[in-house]
Write a structure and sequence with these properties.
single chain, 409 residues, alpha/beta, eight-stranded mixed sheet, two-stranded parallel ribbon, 16 helices, 12 strands, elongated
Length: 409
């Protein structure tokens, strides 16, 4: 195909050269000395020239269209994905690539900011996975593409509790109505992980986030290097997170001393799930904030670990599939989302320690201790869902957190 395009390009150039060369010959006569026969010959040549030019133009257009077609075909054979660690097992990758004939280029992310910064900076992706409390930032910047649910037949497999959530819809001005922009996929909680060989106090249902502040555990606890640690402090102080929507500066000042207490007590604020698991396995820390997926992994590998939700309720979250507005392969992205919503595929993701929104995935997953993946109605009712903060609030608490990190005490 490429050879044909090359020879057609050469042919077009030759044709144009042959057409134009007689008009610029060194021995051309002035118009006053031309005979009537010469004039007639020139007119005839001019007609031939126009026909040849037209043919050459058509050849060039054909070349351009063919090159564009080749590029589009190549793009449809590739899918660029930004996905959270552990959400896309190699087994599922191979299944999709074999079935769809599409190569997956996978980039792992550890925070929402990476995905948002990518698109804000003009970067491209076909699928990203923002957390539900961050999606409004992408809507407001017109960086997301509406999703046609008719092209995702397996959407029916999602638990009804996660369908038609306000944060999944956007009408151009506000959440809760309009087109669907995200598909909820991995669902979970953030809670507390405890090494019971090191922490000797009784493990009861009354344990709360205040365990991270215990003086006897100083240097043996950790928490997330993000605003989530601020939210923990708000919960401990009994301040609803929604207060940040009313007056973020005043609300943050109310918990400044508590955040500083946490900073003084932690060994470190961790950045990734893999990092906190290593800290716990190596017994550098004995108690930590952690996502439920990491908690289940530790519990399954060693019975000394217990994951629990704090008495005030853990943080509930959902990571979603979103197709960026500038995606090169949106059709391929829809195929991928539909593939991931198949129960047998979601079961593979569950086997990596995650809980998906796909019904029956847990039932067919090849895992032990399936009860670790299930929440009671009471636990679900106590979950605290992060509000969809506007950018101004996010900027305010981000500056506050960075200030806390840089303080030397």
């Amino acid at each position: 195909m490429k050879k044909n395009l090359f020879f057609k390009s050469i042919l077009a150039v030759i044709i144009l050269t042959l057409v134009l060369s007689p008009l610029f010959g060194c021995g051309s006569q002035t118009s006053s000395s031309l005979s009537s026969e010469s004039v007639s010959d020139i007119e005839e040549a001019s007609k031939d020239k126009s026909q040849i030019e037209s043919q050459a133009t058509e050849e060039i257009l054909e070349i351009t269209e063919s090159q564009t077609s080749v590029k589009e075909k190549e793009l449809k054979q590739i899918l660029n994905i930004y996905v959270w660690e552990g959400y896309l097992p190699e087994k599922a990758v191979k299944m999709f690539e074999d079935e769809a004939g599409i190569k997956l280029n996978i980039s792992l992310v550890s925070d929402n900011g990476t995905m948002i910064a990518l698109l804000e900076g003009g970067g491209k992706a076909d699928i990203i996975m923002p957390t539900q409390n961050q999606v409004n930032r992408l809507y407001e910047k017109d960086l997301a593409m509406p999703i046609d649910l008719n092209k995702i037949p397996n959407y029916k497999n999602i638990s009804d509790a996660f369908k038609n959530q306000p944060w999944s819809m956007w009408n151009g001005k506000e959440l809760g109505s309009g087109d669907t922009y995200v598909i909820p996929y991995v669902f979970g909680t953030s809670g507390i992980i405890i090494n019971t060989n090191k922490y000797k106090e009784p493990i009861t249902e009354n344990i709360g986030w205040d365990i991270l502040f215990k003086e006897e555990l100083k240097g043996r606890v950790s928490s997330k290097n993000s605003a989530e640690s601020i939210m923990i402090c708000l919960d401990v102080e009994g301040i609803p997170r929604s207060e940040l929507l009313k007056n973020p500066e005043k609300t943050l000042e109310k918990v400044r001393s508590k955040v500083l207490d946490l900073k003084r007590n932690v060994l470190k604020f961790y950045d990734t799930g893999a990092e906190v698991i290593d800290l716990l396995k190596n017994e550098e820390v004995w108690v930590s904030h952690i996502w439920d997926g990491g908690g289940r992994k530790l519990m399954s590998s060693d019975s000394k670990f217990i994951y629990l939700l704090p008495k005030t309720g853990g943080l509930g979250w959902t990571d979603t599939f979103m197709i960026p507005k500038n995606a090169d392969n949106p059709e391929g992205a829809l195929k991928f989302i539909d593939f991931m919503l198949r129960p047998e595929v979601a079961a593979i993701v569950t086997e990596e320690g995650n809980t998906t929104t796909v019904s029956d995935a847990i039932k067919i997953a090849d895992i032990e201790n399936k009860e670790l993946f299930e929440l009671t109605d009471e636990q679900i009712s106590k979950l605290i869902w992060q509000p969809n903060f506007p950018q101004s609030v996010i900027d305010t608490y981000t500056v506050f957190w960075e200030e806390i990190l840089t303080l030397n005490e």
